[in-house]
Amino acid sequence: MSAVSSAAASLRAVTTAIDLDQPLIPLADPRHPLVFVRRGEGVVGFGEALRLEFAGAERMREAASAWKSLVERASVTDPVGVAGSGLIAFGTFAFSAQSSATSTLIVPRLVVGRRGDAAWLTRIDIADMRLDGGTASAAQPIDDLADAEAVNRALSPAPWGHPVKLALDAGTPTASGYLAAVTEAVQRIHDGALSKVVLARTLTGELPADADLRRVIAALALGYPDCHTYAVDGLIGSSPETLVRVEQGTVSARVLAGSAARGVDQRSDEAAAAALATSTKDLDEHRFAVQSVLAALDPFARALSSDEVPFTLKLPNLWHLATDVEGTLSAGASSLDLIDALHPTAAVAGTPTDTAMRMLAELEGFDRGRYAGPVGWVDADGDGEWAIALRGAQIDSEGRVTAFAGAGIVAESDPEAELAETRMKFKPVVEAFD
Ligand SMILES: C=C(O[C@H]1C=CC=C(C(=O)O)[C@@H]1O)C(=O)O
After folding, report:
1. Residue 67 — φ and ψ, nearest 5°?
2. What ipTM was reported for this prediction?
3. Tens of pLDDT, residues 396-423
């Protein structure tokens, strides 16, 4: 791999309609999957035509401007013309400006996608690459890209590897450390320092070198079909929360905050949903999250609308309070501009944002990496789909797995209940690795 300090690459993307009578996830690379799917639709990428890396406070703004200039020089042939066809990059961004985790946009060499009745294959290569300062790397020469063998390989799933079995152990903070952090946060909220802070903890494990990550991704997608199942640069999970989706001038988001465990039978399940829908604590927590999204989108969108009252979203492990937001995008903004404006929402940081960011870093005591940051894809028009990287884990190059889960802490929070909520939020990942 040739890492360079900047690149002015000319990308060429050619999309062709295909017949695809098989699911997307088995097509993914078993070791380095690039996946963003929901309800069987979405995109799977292979290889890397180009990788752009970013860090620090300007990471999303720099990504937006780097992508804009790459697209200006790109040639795109896309007769399919649906969300995800044509030139795309997968992306994952660190939660915090101080994080040591890199934020990256990865342009795959091949993409296979499905949306409604349409299915397509996109081949991407670099027509020209001038080096002139920045941070980018080109994976390898692309002469072989168009070759039929690479395309056939992309459409023929590799044989499945062994089932992945991995027990995740206590990470940072421990359960008792988490209880102490929540107790301290509640005290500071009562003292008036802030209204809400989201506190997370981790679980850790070691993945065997030859693990077939498609097994983990397939388990997540099967178990949580209404969530965005993602895999980008080792970050894997199934998120119920759409940070933002931009498609042909429409902008939408699904805001979640406020959670309750599912009941054990129909009666207790209905009672759990009803209690959540009327809980002042959860409705307050939710209101902060919706307000933060509406305020961030306001400069970029017209006719923003959302329901007055949240609905209860049923997931296999949890009930959530949810609000869908929709509006018309004002000219010029891309989905990368919007993730920059929206992140971090009150659903993953707290209110007010700056105080919450400082407090969560202090009380959690670990680097969140890309957990709770934006994960998704962007296309040549700037349209894209970005989830908040929740209910997931980061797998590093040595196979170390770190899973993350958090809960919104407000004045009425009970530490034991918040700890139990994080256990429920770990469930998708714990079970996918089991
Ligand atoms: C911080 C997480 O969830 C957020 C999203 C939905 C509901 C949340 C809650 O009820 O606390 C959290 O704000 C997580 O899953 O790690």
Report:
1. -65, -40
2. 0.98
3. 999 999 999 999 999 999 999 999 999 9
